[in-house]
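Team,

Forwarding the record for the chain on the shared tracking sheet. I've put the sequence and predicted structure together so nobody has to dig through attachments.
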Amino acid sequence: MKLLVTACLVVSGITGAFAQDKNTADKQQILDQVAEESIMGSVQTFDNRYEGVKGNPFLYEDWQKGSFELTDGSTHENLLLRFDVLSDELHFQNRMKVASVVPQDRLKKFILKGEKSENDFHFMRAKYLESLDSEVKPNKIVQVLHENDFQMVAVRYKVVKKADYEGGYSRNKPYDEITEVAPKYYLLKPGQEAEKIKPKKKALLKALPDHADTLEALLESEQYDLANPNEVARLLNQLN
C-alpha cells in the first residue's frame, strides 16, 4: 500500500536542533507536570504483571541518557530514558528518580544518546503511517534512520509469546516471553508516495536511484545488517 505525503512530513527536522526552548524554571515545571500526569500504575502494573516473564519490553533494558520534546515545544535534556517498545511509551526518571511515562498525546520526539552524536538514536511519533499500513497503530513511535532529501523510518516491535500449557510444547517453554520481531521500514520523499521497503540491498537501491551508486559502493566495502535499523541508519547517514 502507498500513501501520498507532503514534503513537510519528510522535512520534520528531528535530527536537527530542537525548537526554541523555554527557560529552565518553566521546563522544570512542565517536567513535574508531566510526571504528575504519568499513570504510574501502568509502570507498576507492568512490573507486577510480567514478573517471571522472560525478556523485557524495552528497546534497551538499561536506562539511556537522552532528551525529549513535547508537543508544546518544550525540550527536556540530560534525562534517563527507556523506550517501552511493547507498550509504545517513553519512560523517564523525574528529579526524584521515580519512573514516569510521557503521556502519548504530549510526546513529539526524543533522542537516546550514543557515545558520539552520530551514534544518537532519533525517534518521533508518526501520525501518518496507519494510513499506509493497517498494522501500524495510530501515532506510533518510529525510529528516524535518515532525514535529508528523503526520510527513512523504522517501526520497532516486541510481542509477548504466550506459554502453551497444552501438549508437549509446554515442557520446553512453560512461560511467557517478550521477544523482538522484525521491524518495518518506510521511505518518504517530498511530493511522492510513501512506500514500505524491504530490508534488502536490491530493494534499497531500487527505492533510492539517486544514491544507488554510492550505496552499492558502501555495501560492497563493508558489511551492513539491513535487518537492524541502527545499521541502516549508519549506512544512510554516510550519504549526507
